[in-house]
Model the fold of this input.
Amino acid sequence: MKKLLALLLAMLMLLSTVAMVACQDNTPDAPVNPVPGEPGDTEDDGPQLSEDEEKANAVITRIEKIGEFGKSNYKTKKTLIKNAREKYDELTDAQKAYISEELYKKLTDAEAAFAAYQLADEKAEALTINKLISASPTIDGKMNVEYYMGTSLTVFNEAGTKVVLHMLLDSQYLYILEERIDASLNYATDYNAPNTGDAAVIYFTKDAEQVAGLYWARATAKSETPVIALFGAQADMASATVKEYECMAVNAEDGKSYIMETKIPLKDLDLTEKDFEKSLVGMTYCAYDADGTNVTEMKYAGVDAWDDCERFFTADAFLFKIIAEGSPVIDGRLDDIYKQSQAIELSQKVCNSFSEGEKEVGAGFVGIKDDGSSDAILQLSGNMFATYRLVVDDEYIYIAEHRYDLVPLYKNKTFREPYKADGSMFWFTLNGSITAGIQWNRATLDSTKPMFGLFYDDKKQTSSTLMNWEYSVKNCGNEFEYIMECKIPLSDLKLTKEDFDKGNVGFTCITCDIVKSNYDPDNFTWEDAGFQMQYVGVNNWKYAPSLLVNPFERDLYELPTVGEYDPSLDPDDSGNEKPFDKVPTDKNGFLTIEYSYMKYATWFAHMKREEYMFTKDPIDQLPEGMLVVDTPTANGSVGKYCDKERQFVIKIDLKKYKNAIIVMELAQNYHLELSTDPAVETTKPEDLGTLTTWTVVQDYEKVHGQHIEVGAGGLHHAVAIESSTWAKDADYLYIRLSNSDPSKGHGGSCYNFTIYYEE
Done:
């Protein structure tokens, strides 16, 4: 057996060798798949063609190879169309004479169709009813490429029936085109009974309330033309009336599909063009499919709940350019890529120009009243002007603010007080409900850098969190003008690119402008200190303008001309100054004069951090081994309340928390000590106060001269402890909080404990 196998293998090797030798001849390579009629053809049959005819035939062949194509496969024809055009343009006039007008029209038609499909494809599939670019479509039952650039809603069933509604809009009419693919066309017999055949029932809503409906049937028993019955807010169609609208239906040759097209006066639907522009209009529908034995009801989203209807917007809604290649550089300058985005403008003048309807939903401004004084006249003549440009890509939204301000007041106590300095607040909504908000200040107490607070579902910002996003701010060559730019992950806003693609994202904002440099932030009123300028929808999220991706290339928006950045015009941001002041009575302690806890988050933004909140019902959040002694009680909202002789001791592992900075939010009568002595862990809790290795960082009673027992708790201080100063060569640092006078009540309290460290 083995000998037989060996013999077979030897024969196979011999045959392979013979084949290889046979392939190795010295004849020139023959052309592979030559184009007929071009040099390189090997055909000799037929009469000899002139050179002009040969070149013309090569182009004819290329045009014929393009063939038919549609929206689903047009991309596969790109090279064929491009090559055919290039070869045709290379022909002389004599050679072009061999190509008939009919054939050349095939090329131009293919180019036009390709361009139209490409244009439609470049837009994201947002629910945008486009205003007509030129003339209105002819109601002829034929697909017009403009419909591809408007919105479309699709339903289908397992039987293979597919219904697509396309819509366009002008100032007076809504144009609807239905494409139906149906292997078994069965037309309805009665418009009052739409579930007896193939038909569609379309509902229109305004402010989530049904305003009108259409019953649309391919034909009825008495007519071969489409029938449209209009009904009002009654979903049961009890008041439906047949209307003589302009309409047309055309069957396909295969008898398995048709196109129906109509134009409906907006006034008949109790809608206006403005309703669409303000994103008030919703739409949903049922498509009925009869196969001869039963009727399938295919529902689009929202049929049973008007709140869930798809909202539509005209192309004049805000359009965001989705960046396909590249993104803006975050450098405090306006890259050309921002030209593709519309600019949102806020100023006294712009806000005063809002219509009464827009003012009713939050647009406009409050602030200094025009009392005839020179100051008021100055402010109302244009003290501040700001524009915002936004673009998005797959992961980020980029925001650039360009502000011109005669009185630039950057400082603010904390990001939780947005109305006491120049700054802006943005809200992003999804389907009319707020998802996230951003508080944005030009600078804070000890830094010229922007400060960002992020908050969710909360107009009061009580849940706001400081964010360390990539940002830049630069002046524009003068002290009154600057650009602030930021890159924000969409995930932080609980949004996705798909949300923008579908047109579900809304946006609105407030800009605050302080106009008096000597104003008192603690006694602030809009009437005498500044302006709050609001964009549309601030007080009603469903009116917030929708942010849509650009459906097609738009004219470039001119960007403002700005001067070169001048570092000398910005306050010193060298980083040498600490964001807290030394305690006057204790050279070893660092204590803020007033509570401004959150500013530490900005200062130490380059470090990792762990934050622990102490509440009246705390679950011990500290890592295992960090809490050495824990005898405090809860008092009010505080879970670490060291009344009388109560205390707690925290142990910081400096090998794990490298170059740690510990920030503690404290209140009333606290006594804070530090030690690196390991004996802290072996000493009885009641004897810890007698250890001589403690260093006192701060004693509230000594600083303030008394032990406060009336109104205690309201004076919060933030103490920052730097391990590199206190425990330079130690492995552990111990922090002890107790009562400045253990014989009395109202002892020290710790609300918040945060540790910043390097990895």
User: Anything to note?
Assistant: The longest strand covers residues 748-758.
